[in-house]
Amino acid sequence: DIVMTQTPSSQAVSAGEKVTMSCKSSQSLLYNENKKNYLAWYQQKPGQSPKLLIYWASTRESGVPDRFIGSGSGTDFTLTISSVQAEDLAVYYCQQYYNLDTFGAGTKLELK
Amino acid sequence: QVQLKESGPGLVQPSETLSLTCTVSGFSLTSYSVSWVRQPSGKGPEWMGRMWYDGDTAYNSALKSRLSISRDTSKNQVFLKMNSLQTDDTGTYYCTRDRGLLDYWGQGVMVTVSS
Fold first, then answer.
1. What does the mean pLDDT of chain B come to?
2. B62-78: pLDDT as tens digits
3. What are the φ/ψ torsions at residue A35 (nearest 5 degrees)?
4. Closest residue in A to B40 (Cα–Cα)
5. Which residues contact B75 (CB under 8 A, 6 or more apart)?
6. What is the pLDDT, as a whole number, of residue A50?
7. Which residues of chain B make contact with A49, given a CB cutoff of 8 A?
8. H-helix or E-strand containing A72?
9. How far is CA A62 from CA A57, A59, A65, A66, A85, in A?
């Protein structure tokens, strides 16, 4: 099974800050046939279901603000929030869908 | 619009079987796959298994021996059955529309395993 490791587990931020979080997979998520990385990012706020933010490692879902930026390839991926807003305080999960599905343990954004 | 809604008992006795139903609208089960995902309180999601659009199934290897997913396309429903429940099966269970990425999620149903 592919293991997904997210760091840090939590991060204290101030509004307007740039934030980056990491997701590493135990094997490559890059499918050579189509050159796509099978990696998605989700946002989960308290009491809510996870919400899809990014797929194919860097494609924003419709309606997701452009301050959310996904990058990376192979086994190393990053979610960047260019200027954190109060409504971005949540837990962020990465998911691989290259071989069945697995999720990371999450990065929790908290207010500094 | 696309909607998914989970239903089932909130409390299950240890060693018994969990049965959940996911009722979908706004898309066809013969065009899209549906996955079940569960989440213990305060922890990350765990993918459980998938009903493919063509009727095939796939399961998390850790749950495969206890889990069964089926569907009734005429009723737009996908079913989950998991046996031999233990206390660490407690959590919120979601069904999701699955394109590999999980683009729509139900509200979830909280399941507690306790005597």
1. 97
2. 999 999 999 999 999 99
3. 60, 30
4. A105
5. B23
6. 98
7. 94, 105-108
8. strand A68-73
9. 15, 9, 9, 10, 19
pLDDT value, residue A112: 87
Whole-angstrom Cα Rg for chain A: 13
Helix (H) or strand (E) holding A23, with range, is strand A19-25
What is the spatial distance between Cα A109 and Cα B15, in angstroms, rounded to a whole number?
37
Tokens representing B38?
């569960």
* Per-residue model confidence as pLDDT tens digits over A24-38: 999 999 999 999 999
List of E strands, chain B: 3-7, 11-12, 18-25, 33-39, 46-51, 57-59, 67-72, 77-82, 91-99, 101-105, 109-113
Cβ within 8 Å of A, B 3-32? none
- Band (pLDDT 50/70/90 cuts) for residue A110 is very high
